[in-house]
Write a structure and sequence with these properties.
Helix 2 links the parallel strand 1 and strand 2. Strands 1, 2, 3, 4, 5, 6, 7, 8, 9 and 10 form a ten-stranded mixed beta sheet that branches. The protein has eleven helices and ten strands. The chain has two domains: 166 residues, 3-Layer(aba) Sandwich (D-Maltodextrin-Binding Protein, domain 2), CATH 3.40.190.150; 117 residues, D-Maltodextrin-Binding Protein, domain 2 (3-Layer(aba) Sandwich).
């Protein structure tokens, strides 16, 4: 009758010993997009400070493609030992459930949430060659040329893609989505005038707008960005309810021992609390967050529903 209790105690002792020895080799964090994108910059910032706290190098591995599904699938199928993590996003653990008819992984069952790291609103930008200076002018042009105006994204299911769908839906216009393999590719297409618009991260938008290479028409968050106070939210320009921001958080394969999850959570929270890190986040137009694993899990479930409603209302879907 005491056998189950003995087994549980043995497992707890083993898990505790494992956690105390963890990590004994480099930890990999898979990023769902290419180098230079917001998720990549964010992950490298966190990894740089996390490495000395863990006592092991943090290796960033970029696996772009399929709206983040390639990276997420690779991590989901990795050993649950704390050495392979994912910088999960509002795509992989939010919109993609509804955008793609079938995912190779289950964002709930196949992952153990670690910590919610940050949120990152985008900025609607257009090339000067488009000839518009305001959101109203952009929407008027889109109505004159239904289906002719294009917007670039870093991939189907990304916040850039969903932002474009919401813009079309709330603005009452028809736009053509042009997905690229990475966010930098999408930004470059806008810079070259190959597309009518895109949704850039705040630091990218700031540098390109100041250089006169792009025009900022609005931010995708409900509140203005401290890094771009002169650019009004789209929600305040007649598109009530517009609130699409990318978010990022660390996740491990399901079955990763709880002591390891707790260690990763506490160390990441300590990194996010560093004043210098908060300053870097703000400079990038991001907001550092932080959470318990349980809170992050609840957040993921709520985002799958919220973004699913947005996707279904907009009709965005990969066939």
């Amino acid at each position: 009758m005491f056998r189950p209790l003995v087994l549980v105690l043995a497992w707890l002792v083993t898990a505790l010993a494992w956690a105390q020895a963890y990590p004994s080799k480099p930890v990999r964090i898979f990023v769902t997009i290419g180098p230079g994108a917001a998720a990549d910059v964010l992950t490298r910032m966190v990894g740089e400070k996390l490495a000395p706290r863990l006592g092991q190098p943090i290796v960033i591995e970029n696996r772009a493609g399929a709206g983040g599904n390639i990276a997420a699938d690779a991590v989901a199928k990795s050993a649950p030992d704390g050495y392979t993590l994912l910088m999960a996003s509002s795509s992989t653990h939010g919109a993609n459930v509804s955008v793609y008819p079938k995912l190779p992984f289950d964002p709930i069952k196949d992952f153990a949430p670690v910590v919610l790291v940050a949120t990152n609103p985008n900025v609607l930008v257009v090339p000067p060659s488009l000839g518009v200076n305001t959101l109203a002018e952009l929407l008027a042009l889109a109505k004159q040329k239904p289906g002719e105006l294009t917007y670039a994204s870093g991939g189907t299911g990304t916040s850039m893609h969903i932002s474009g769908e919401v813009l079309a839906m709330l603005g009452g216009v028809k736009l053509q989505h042009i997905p690229f393999r990475s966010t930098p590719d999408a930004i470059n297409a806008a810079l070259a005038g190959e597309v009518s618009m895109t949704f850039a991260s705040a630091p990218t938008a700031m540098s390109q707008v100041k250089a006169g290479r792009l025009k900022a028409l609005g931010v995708t968050s409900e509140k203005p960005l401290s890094s771009l106070p002169e650019v009004a939210p789209l929600a305040a320009q007649g598109l009530a309810g517009f609130d699409v921001s990318a978010w990022f958080g660390l996740a491990a394969p399901a079955g990763t021992p709880e002591p390891i999850i707790k260690r990763l959570n506490s160390e990441t929270l300590a990194v996010l609390a560093m004043p210098e890190m908060r300053e870097k986040f703000v400079a990038l137009g991001m907001e550092p967050l932080g959470s318990t694993p349980a809170e992050f899990g609840a957040f993921i479930r709520s985002e799958i529903k919220r973004l699913g409603d947005v996707v279904r209302a907009s009709g965005a879907r990969v066939n």
